[in-house]
TrEMBL record:
GO terms for molecular function: metal ion binding; metallopeptidase activity. Binds 1 zinc ion per subunit. This is Zinc metalloprotease. Zn(2+) binds at residues 89, 93, 188. It comes from Actinoallomurus iriomotensis. Belongs to the peptidase M50B family. The active site is at 90. Residues 78-150, 162-219 form the Peptidase M50 domain.
Length: 402
């Protein structure tokens, strides 16, 4: 699945978003063609699950009579090979995006697949279509290569466990390619559907609406099928269908909300949304003194933390301050502040739209606004939510044509 949303960072690690759904990169694996590649902790779940399926079910059926240690010795590399095939899928999205002039910030693998995060959204329907189709086509190609490798290994008399592992990984890649082509967001098929509607109607927003609606319907159908399997057939595989269905419904809903936010933010500048001249917390000030003189009486729930020169260096919230024990009242403010990544700095004339897909820093701050090296404003998640609500109100009050 390709993810055309701005990058965001939080207290530690890197975050990516699936159209408004944030996901943390817990472990950075390195760089491929200059693109940072990492994994979310949840990828361990799928690795363990695949290794267990291969070692306990697939290999014993294909080549019975071997010891459990042999099966596991083959199953673990098979799980890693599957992970590598997911990386190839996301790498294909990234490669086509780069070829079409889009920047790629990162690739993240997680329990249900991967995310290639783009710097910006495709400018044309054809680019959108090309980027979306690249992943499933690559999975089909990888599946074909692995099937060919299995046939070759069999023809030269390789052990049955090796042949079975290659064939199973090939078949799984083929299944994933077909599943990803289902026409509903956030699957690649949903992106393809969006691009086709966009191409036909000339309206990207309409394509978004169709794809997210299809994704929610598809998710509900899969979840329902999972419940039916679990109740009427007593098959635990229904739990997996329920998980996938729930994920599709949740993510498609998040995409729909993200689209509404993007539409509300269109044409709006940061200066129009920001809280002007917010109260700041000097980094060197004692926590107890700042709480007594500022935080306890302020209407703000978050405070930019500034250095000696007035430059922003972090964020501290009321929630964090309330958790400070009395014994630390004399500590400096910066000892409890969240570091401020460069991504969270904005200028007054910057557009608001890139903030819409960002994970709020410290749970609330979307941007600290700087001009002439000093803090002049702050944008919070509450400010963005208010913008969306006001946009809805204006739409309701707009005169309807007769």
């Amino acid at each position: 699945m390709d993810v055309p949303r701005p990058a965001a960072r939080a207290e530690s690690g890197a975050w990516v978003t699936i159209e408004g759904v944030a996901m943390k990169q817990n472990l950075r694996l390195g760089h491929v063609a200059g693109i940072p590649v990492g994994v979310n902790w949840s990828v361990v779940v799928i690795l363990v699950l695949i290794a267990d399926i291969v070692a306990v079910n697939v290999l014993p059926r294909a080549d019975a009579g071997r010891s459990a240690s042999v099966y596991w010795a083959i199953a673990i590399p098979t799980a890693l090979l599957f992970l590598a095939s997911l990386l190839a899928h996301e790498g294909a999205h990234a490669a086509v995006a780069r070829k079409r002039g889009l920047g790629v910030r990162s690739i993240t693998l997680w329990m249900l697949g991967g995310v290639a995060q783009l710097d910006s959204e495709p400018k044309t329907a054809r680019t959108d279509l090309a980027v979306a189709a690249a992943g499933p086509l690559t999975s089909l190609a990888v599946g074909g290569v692995l099937f060919g490798a299995a046939e070759g290994a069999s023809s030269v008399g390789a052990p049955g466990v090796i042949v079975a592992a290659l064939a199973w990984t090939g078949a799984t890649n083929g299944f994933l390619a077909v599943f990803n082509l289902l026409p509903g967001a956030p699957l690649d098929g949903g992106r393809i559907l969006r691009a086709l509607v966009w191409m036909r109607c000339g309206d990207r927003s309409r394509g978004d609406r169709v794809a997210t609606a299809a994704g929610q319907v598809m998710g509900a159908a899969l979840a329902g099928a999972g419940v039916a399997q679990l109740i009427f057939l007593s098959r635990t595989g229904g739990l997996w269908l329920m998980l996938i269905g729930w994920f599709l419904m949740w993510t498609a809903g998040a995409e729909a909300r993200s689209r509404v936010t993007q539409e509300a933010a269109a044409g709006v500048r940061v200066r129009d949304l920001m809280v002007p001249e917010p109260e700041c917390a000097p980094s060197w000030r004692p926590i107890g003194e700042f709480i007594a003189s500022v935080a306890a009486r302020s209407r703000q729930s978050a405070f930019p933390v500034t250095g000696f020169g007035g430059e922003p260096c972090g964020v501290v919230t009321l929630a964090r301050l309330t958790r400070v024990p009395p014994g630390r009242a004399g500590d400096r403010i910066d000892s409890v502040a969240v570091a401020l990544p460069a991504d969270y700095l904005a200028a007054p004339d910057d557009p608001v739209a890139p903030l819409a897909g960002r994970l709020p820093l410290a749970g609330t701050v979307l941007a600290v606004v700087v001009a002439d090296h000093r803090v002049v404003g702050m944008v919070t998640a509450e400010d963005l939510g208010r913008l969306v609500q006001q946009s809805r109100l204006r739409a309701k009050c707009a005169p309807r044509p007769d």
